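Bumping with the actual sequence this time:
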Amino acid sequence: MTIDTQRGWSRLGLLCSLIVTGCSTAPSLQLMEDFRSALTIQATDAQTNDSRIVSGSEGWLFSVPELLHVSSGQFWSNDRNPLESTSDSINGDPLAVILDFKNQLSALGVELLLVPVPPKVLVFADKVHTSQLSLPVPLPRLDQFHREFYNLLRNVDVDVLDLTETFIRERFSMESPLYCRTDTHWSSSGCVVAARQIAETIRERNWFSSLESTPESYRSQWLSSSIHGNLTSERAELTDREEIQLRAVSREGPTGLKTVSTDPDSPIILLGDSHTLVFHTGGSMHATGSGLADQLAAELGLSVDLIAVEGPSATASRGKLLNRAKNDSAYWQTKRLVIWCFSALEFTNSDEWDVLPIR
């Protein structure tokens, strides 16, 4: 199958799925184009004022890079078939690089689950000031190109967990919204929803039943906290803090409850960017014990091996994975799955998509 044929089928699938899946109100292609245009205006105005944030309604803040990503349209190459590309020709193309990574893992008997983090501005599109644009209720899914890209990946046998529709549907259904109002990251509630979806797909795999899983030994409780979101630095009221809810996870041990630790020997690797670190590592990531790795441990009943970086991660996280494997010749022998989780805006950062070996 050629890339043009794949693209044609993906567009047909997009039009069908807009009708039968997601929110009850199916957006037109014109509405999605108008939404992208509105985001472009918002981002351009912010950049003109030397700002990296866009202020929305009800205290919601959005990052300019994310708005530019969503408004950019198609972000992958149609000039080549990723099945026929060579390692020398695919740098900069996320479609081909992801497929190369998947194929390298498959050669080692390791599976890949790609979990892009939906852009905040898509999940809370109605919180952005978009004059002259009326969004229907319930909020529809407005990302034509993400959906098409994920279909292309599936057509070349890459397993993609698309969280977008679930996140739009459940965006206010947990203890708090699924994203922080004043930060670029999802909230602890978002981590919980993502972990449940990821765990559901993992439990369906035939090898999972052979693992030592003890979900009954994990405990969780919701706690109140507050953060200085990373989008507040340009605001005058720097003392303002965002009140949030955290689901703190702990595990029963011989001496009582203790914080969940990641496990370098785990058969499951969580690979990613700061979305895999927020609420897990503390410091600039706000809290510990309440992030995606913690929620996955609670849902799966076992700890994961976490390999992540705070900055742009598409290449950097795989570089860190390579270093881990080089330092341990037996590293891949017990691994079964890589969960690759990163912000969808990485797709438009072509400098971050380089081919790397994994050992």
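The tokens above came from a reply further down the thread. DSSP finds ten helices and ten strands in the chain.
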